[in-house]
Amino acid sequence: MPRIYRQESPTGYYHVMTRGINKDKIFRYESDKKYLLKIIVEKNREVFCNIYSYCIMDNHLHLLIEGSIDDLSLLMKKVNSSYAFYYNSKNNRIGPVFQDRFKSEIIFNDEHFLCVLRYIHNNPVKANMVSKAEFYNRSSMKEYIEGENHIITRDALEIVNINFKTIDNFIEFHQIEDENDYLEVVEELMINKDEYGKRIVSRYLEQVKIDTVEELKNKDELIIRLLEEEKFSYREIGKLVRCSVGKVANMNKVLRP
Description:
This protein is an alpha+beta fold. The chain has 12 helices and 4 strands, in the order βαββαβαααααααααα.
């Protein structure tokens, strides 16, 4: 199967996730998490990208990164291969350590950036590992609170100053409920792509305050929203929106002239 090219972010920012093969807990121990952070620092000196947020869970890693696609790919390749060598040596095993390539999604704007940053920091909360994001030791939340950049870039600390009056406001921001779907959730939903598409349609209908697709007088915006996901065929979009394949193809020409 041909490899799918990564979409280039209009902002230069990406949400990245890499996961242990078969969802294995490859970062189970504190020593593993500490070593992974060491690798990230070392490899980021070789291929520099701005890191704005990170969180190491037991079986996966989240990063919020700024950089070119080529630099991002090279950095993640170096990090994954170095950690795989460490993990296999430590556990006297051979074979893949990570599940496929790393996953990535583009960041569209400042609001999206802050929501993804919050989502990354709240991973341990959603997993019931801690009650609040600031209690977790292996994420960038502590760096923001303490005003020290060990893994994240110095520019990242300016986010608090620019967007929040105080560090308490920044902490409170992490307690806001967010029903949007982010990289990890989308990956799980893609197991059932039809269900994922229906969720996108349902949320759009809620936004425009109507009950069914048939009530939509103009379906162009919804079609474009599904096309931007780059996960659905014209036929799948036509089925979800109740329109012809030709209509979807024409809207794609508008989106990508």
